[in-house]
Design brief:
Layout (H helix, E strand, L loop, with lengths): L12 H14 L79 H6 L2 H7 L18 E2 L19 H9 L8 H12 L2 E2 L6 H14 L3 H8 L9 H13 L7 H7 L6 H13 L3 H14 L4 H12 L20 H10 L5 H5 L3 H8 L6 H14 L4 H13 L6 H14 L3 H12 L7 H6 L1 H5 L11 H10 L3 H5 L10 H9 L9 H10 L6 H12 L5 H10 L9 H11 L3 H11 L10 H13 L3 H14 L1
Antiparallel strand pairs: 1-2
């Protein structure tokens, strides 16, 4: 909450100083008789006939006056009511009041930045939340343990340096969809900060990590759990990235207006102007943005978009023409403002847009459906969108008139895959959607997960069992996948996925079946086989001797230790779920499964399995084989 104050930009600086001078005059005894206001009454009303003054009575003791004071005779000196607490009438006037030491001169005041002038004159917004309404910093997060969050006290006694390094080391998206889902859950959990770490810093590190993996909406929710007056620079920076990533420009205003001149970069200056406009100071905002445009503090298109956005506040008095000619690429700022304003971005710029814009367009409800669908496959494969969200998106596309081409055809195939009465027809529709369905098209498996779960487990569909099972496991439908165990042949991909996804294994996996899988593996550098061995070893589903044999045969080097592997093993040894999840996120960064090694996968799966996150461990291992 803020105490809004009127803008001082509608007044000249001299008027502000004049008001201050008047206040000084009221507090002094320099108001003399000749300066008293003159009467406006007709003659005879304010000058009554003089009457003799009564003789003073001899009083033996003082008593309180019970009658009004006598009216002074005409021609006598006017009576001036003394100011309470001031000097007595007739006393020596005090010396002239002096301004505080270091107070700027008039010329210096005229040159001051508007924000600094507000602060000097005491007009800066003040934080005004009652103590009882302020948010606690004891446990910051949006997901309580009763809602699926991780244990709240898990990090209370852990070294802050390890947690800080793990969170700061998360700078890129995950190669694993299920690794992303696990890390997001750990980052938004309502957890107490580790020993020796400020809770605000802890929130800032987690919000920055969420931004790094493309979870801008989750990062925004997390920063909103901390009162704006408690934000530090790190949390402010992470919050701005999150607000821009969700095209929620006005959401930045509490921080921007409270912190004032804390930053001076071009984006901050434009945000200040926008927030002034939405605070009712349209003239001031327009002046600031005109100055920004003339001084070229940022590319013209960025400032023009800011002007258009500020004009939405209702105080704009002129149209803003956006010129995209000469704009060679996008940046988060111009994409966010154009998205929020509904401004069409040239197709040439969108065609060159990178993964960042695909992630945020997939979850932006204000965008056209085709533009959202263009980024949906990536968002689903990375874990940002769920299977249900993908079905909902393509259901809207199917119902929307005017959408044609491949997008409309995919929506029609998806409908058939879910609602057709014949399983053969449903499978044919799914295969049309999958195509070759490599690592880059994993989102297509995600969108057909529940359709695959409706397929009957029959031997006539065994040839496609691997993809059917992979689709189900993309959404965590392990129980549905296990129905195919009697159908798949030993050593096939379907068999490997079930061996990893099943919840318990009473007997170790036979080495002969693994041999068959390895012999038939046609993946690059036998990556699927390496991931299978690493996953089974991490889940303790093969004997130590079998692990050792395949470790040498495939050059896995599973036992080699690094600083990271020692840390995640130590975190697992003390049963610390959040720290294991953070460190697993560090080990799963990358843009494809080619970046993942079997050794990293082994330590991640093993650590997660030991701390009670076996469901995530099994899904990550199965995903590695499906996408390897």
């Amino acid at each position: 909450m803020f105490r809004h104050r009127p803008s001082v930009r509608n007044y000249s600086l001299s008027r502000v100083l004049l008001v201050g001078a008047g206040a000084l005059a009221i507090c002094s005894t320099l108001v003399v008789a000749q300066d008293a206001p003159k009467s406006l009454l007709p003659p005879g009303f304010d000058d009554p006939t003089p009457t003799p003054a009564p003789a003073p009575a001899q009083a033996t003791r003082p008593r309180a006056a019970t009658t009004p004071s006598a009216v002074p005779a005409a021609g006598s000196t006017p009576v001036i009511q003394p100011i309470p607490g001031g000097a007595a009438t007739g006393s020596t006037p005090p010396a002239s009041l002096e301004l505080p030491a270091g107070f700027p001169s008039l010329s210096e005041l005229e040159k001051l930045d508007p924000e600094k002038l507000d602060e000097l004159l005491g007009l800066k917004p003040k934080f005004d939340i009652p103590p009882a309404a302020r948010r606690s910093l004891d446990r910051v997060g949006v997901l309580a343990s009763s809602e699926g969050g991780l244990p709240p006290m898990s990090l209370a006694n852990q070294p802050a340096s390890i947690v800080r390094s793990a969170l700061a080391g998360t700078r890129r998206p995950m190669v694993s969809r299920w690794g992303h889902i696990l890390l997001r859950r750990a980052l938004v959990s309502r957890i107490q900060a580790p020993s020796g770490m400020d809770p605000v810093e802890f929130a800032a590190l987690r919000a920055a990590a969420l931004n790094a993996i493309g979870e801008y909406a989750a990062a925004r929710s997390l920063v909103q759990e901390v009162d704006t007056s408690d934000w530090n620079k790190g949390l402010t920076d992470a919050a701005l990235v999150a607000y821009v990533g969700t095209a929620d420009i006005v959401g930045t205003c509490p921080s921007v207006r409270l912190q004032g001149s804390a930053r001076s970069d071009p984006q901050w200056q434009m945000l200040q102007a926008i927030c002034n406009a939405f605070a009712g100071q349209g003239a001031r905002a327009g002046s600031d943005l005109n100055r920004a445009l003339s001084r070229q503090i940022a590319p013209a298109i960025d400032v023009l978009l800011a002007q258009r956005y500020a004009g939405v506040a209702g105080n704009g008095r002129r149209a803003v023409t956006l010129e995209w000619d000469g704009v060679k690429d996008l940046n988060p700022w111009r994409y966010a403002l154009a998205t929020a304003l509904g401004v069409a971005i040239p197709e040439g710029l969108l065609a060159k847009a990178g993964p960042y814009y695909q992630r945020i367009s997939a979850v932006a409800p204000m965008l056209p459906l085709p533009q959202r669908a263009a980024g949906a496959d990536r968002a689903a494969s990375e874990g940002i969108l769920s299977a249900a969200a993908m079905v909902d998106l393509y259901s809207q596309i199917y119902a929307e008139d005017g959408i044609e081409g491949d997008l409309a055809q995919t929506a029609a195939f998806l409908r058939t895959a879910y609602v057709d009465e014949g399983p053969a027809q449903r499978l044919a529709a799914m295969k049309q959607i999958w195509g070759d369905a490599g690592d880059d098209d994993y989102g297509k498996l995600v969108m057909t997960a529940y359709a695959a779960a409706r397929m009957p487990a029959r031997s006539e569909y065994e040839a496609d069992a691997g993809q059917i099972i992979a689709a189900m496991l993309a959404a965590g439908l392990d129980r549905n996948a296990l129905r195919w165990a009697p159908v798949v042949s030993e050593g096939s991909q379907g068999w490997a996925l079930i061996a990893l996804a099943q919840r318990a294994q009473s007997n170790p996996i036979a080495s002969g079946a693994i041999d068959s899988f390895v012999d038939d593996d046609g993946s690059a550098d036998q990556r699927k086989s390496k991931f299978l061995i690493a996953g089974l070893a991490g889940l303790n589903r093969i004997e130590q001797g079998t692990t050792s044999d395949f470790n040498d045969r495939l050059s896995l080097d599973l036992q080699r230790q690094t600083k990271w592997s020692r840390l995640i093993d130590r975190a697992a040894a003390v049963n610390n779920q959040p720290l294991v999840a953070y460190l697993a996120g560090v080990g799963m960064q990358g843009d494809s499964w080619e970046k993942m090694t079997a050794r990293h996968l082994y330590h991640i799966v093993s650590a997660l399995n030991r701390v009670g996150l076996s469901a995530e461990a099994r899904m990550i291992a199965a995903e590695a084989v499906a996408r390897g």
